[in-house]
Amino acid sequence: MLQSIPLSEIVRNPEQPRTVFEPKALAELAASIRNNGLMQPITVRPLKKGRFEIVAGERRFRAHELLAEQGQLPDGTILAHVRAMKDEQRDIEAIVENLSRADITPMEEARAFKRVLDRGYSEADLAAKLGMQQVWRIRDRVRLLNLAPEHITLFEGGNLSAEAVYEISKLDRHDDQTKIVRMIARGQLTGYKAIGAAVAAILSGLSQADIFAGEPKASEAEVSMVNAMEAKIDSVAKMVAAGFKENEVVIARKVSPDRARLMADQLGLIRKHCLQMENQLRQAAAQAEMLAAE
Fold first, then answer.
1. CA dihedral defined by 202, 206, 208, 209, rounded to 10 degrees?
2. Is residue 167 part of a domain?
């Protein structure tokens, strides 16, 4: 049911996912509503004693409050869809409205998702309710709540990147998280791959004895082995850098599509093995850096 409701009879949703409302954007919205009217009514649900609670449209409601304060809303009302619903449905609809907005923060999403999951929903059920294909988005966001409070503050203040906190949040112990944050601050870890490798090193639970197998210094044979590995990697890098000659790919397709497909499969396998080796080397380097930092 659509009706005009006095602002004084409407209360905000205490579980509203979004907590940050930029004043300048709010003022611009108020000006737009003043000049053009409200294009999309808000949605509210009825409460006891003739009150209503916002389900969707808190920015529009706040813009109306701003107009009322400026004396530019003579009737003091806002147009609203009134729909009866339980807390659970209210929380889901509030998430749906905010997911379409670019300015909702990952932490706001995390808290909103967690609130619904705590009602007994599985991640898959919630994703289906929200029409989301990426169940991992819910899982990754909620895991951010594992972060130590001070790390959440750093993230929300723009002092830790999203890539960094998604990796750090994989660590349950706040002391381990702090170790990674300090290494980032000292410039020992740059880029999400290095941070991910350091996190994986901690998750592997390897001690100094595990890493160096009780040998604080590498033997000549081990040094020779690493030199040979480095030479092989350098050789592969040069080969890849050379790339294909002009029209070689077109000719391969012309000669035999099956052979072209086989070569593509072989390149895919090479890429997979290279990625595995890259990750292992990054983890080894991260382990050594962490031990040096202790």
1. 180
2. no
Q: Where are the alpha helices (DSSP H) in the chain?
A: 23-36, 58-69, 87-99, 106-117, 123-130, 135-143, 149-156, 162-168, 174-185, 192-204, 208-212, 220-242, 248-255, 257-293
58 and 134 inside one domain: no
Report the first-to-last Cα separation within the chain, whole angstroms. Answer: 64
Domain count for the chain: 2
* Residues 165 and 110 sit within 8 Å (Cβ to Cβ): no
Domain boundary among 45, 60, 87: 87
Q: Say whether both 63 and 15 belong to one domain.
A: yes
Evaluate if residue 282 carries a pLDDT over 80. no
13: domain CATH number is 3.90.1530.30
Both 18 and 79 in a single domain?
A: yes
Sorting pLDDT into bands at 50, 70 and 90, what band is 52? very high
Q: Range of 120's domain? A: 105-143
The answer to whether the beta carbons of residues 151 and 168 sit under 8 Å apart is: yes
Coil/strand/helix, residue 37: coil
In which residue are the tokens 């929903």 written? 121
- CA separation for the pair 43, 131 (Å, rounded): 20
* Contact between residue 108 and residue 19 where contact means Cβ atoms under 8 Å apart: yes
Residue 79 resides in a domain: yes
What are the pLDDT digits (tens) for 99-134? 766 567 889 889 989 988 998 889 998 888 887 878
In three-state secondary structure terms, 142 is: helix
CA angle 46, 48, 52 (to 5 degrees): 35
pLDDT in tens, 248-274: 766 776 777 777 788 888 888 888 878
Same domain? For 59 and 120 the reply is: no
9 and 80: one domain?
A: yes
